[in-house]
Amino acid sequence: MVTDDLPLENSDSTAVQDVTTVSLPESATIIEETTPSTSNGQTDELHVCITNHKATVRERVGDTLFEFNAGSFFQNNNSILLPLVEYVRDAIFSGHSDNSPTHLVDTYCGAGFFSLTLAPYFSVVTGVEISADSIASARHNAQLNSLPPPA
User: Which of 34, 68, 73, 121 could pair covalently with 137 via S-S, beta carbons 3.0-4.6 A apart?
Assistant: First the structure.
């Protein structure tokens, strides 16, 4: 459900305070209220729907932050992003106990979803993308996550 209304009541007054003090741009609406918790090792964040395709979206996958243009492609089911990365990582490294892969080529890399989340496991990571805007986002996201720039 998409709503422009902020919640007025909640059994957890801290959550209400956190939600009501958030300033949203005109291009965003709250789509899901989450109560801050650390049960999964991370603090839940407020999810918003960006309605302006030129606005910047910010997404967190595990410890990796992403910023990208709302009109560009990104894996949009954020509830499966971390399990998806873990599944791909496990598939890449299964059966390679003595000779693990050292290079990752992420074709159609977009904003760097696989490139950046899997970078800690590889010596060399290369993203291939046709969209100049996506390449700029991937480079920005690498910098945002303190990863070295391309050689």
Answer: 68
Q: What is the dihedral of CA 3, 70, 38, 89, to 10 degrees?
A: 140
Nearest to 105 by CA among 135, 141, 87, 129: 129
List the one residue out of 48, 1, 2, 45 whose CA is nearest residue 24: 48
> Which residues have C-beta within 8 Å of that of residue 112, sequence separation ≥ 6?
66, 106, 127, 137, 138, 141, 142
The predicted model scores a pTM of: 0.69
- Kindly give the parts of the chain with pLDDT less than 70: 1-47, 96-97, 150-151
Contact at 8 Å (CB) between 112 and 59?
Answer: no
Residue 133: in which H helix or E strand, if any? Answer: helix 132-144
SS3 25: coil
Helices vs. strands in the chain: H and E counts, helices first: 4, 6
